[in-house]
Specification:
Ureohydrolase_dom_sf, hydrolase, metal-binding, SPEB protein, 150 residues, 5 helices, Arginase, Chain A, alpha/beta, 4 strands, Ureohydrolase
Length: 150
Amino acid sequence: GGDHTITYPILQAVAGKHGPVGLVHVDAHTDTSDRALGEKIYHGTPFRRCVEEGLLDCSRVVQIGIRGSSYDPDPYKYCQDQVSSAAGMRRVMLSFPAALEIIRGCKGLNIVGCDLVEVAPMYDVSGNTALLAANLLFEMLCVLPGVKTT
């Protein structure tokens, strides 16, 4: 649950063990603003902080589904200034997948961490969102290196 501020400490831990990693980030926003509402750590800033701390290998960052509003007048400039390309076989962090196809398409990547954010069970009276989240996390576990799914 939560937003991508939770990914920031996860990436600190992952990079602490593996060094800078690639990132497959599925979201409507880049989360690379310098500040949001005057704060440097806010749900719109975590991936910028990760770049600044050297947690991400910017040549292997892929962002999918980017759209929507932003606090920045030019929300894509920071990302365009970084070097982005395919993730390759080096270590990758997978964050907030939006569809089974995206998760299953990551099979074969050297994924060393993953998370799922933006789940709010208190607004999920039917439990359907929590069930979907559990299924998506299960799918993420299935694409980790060395996991046999057949």
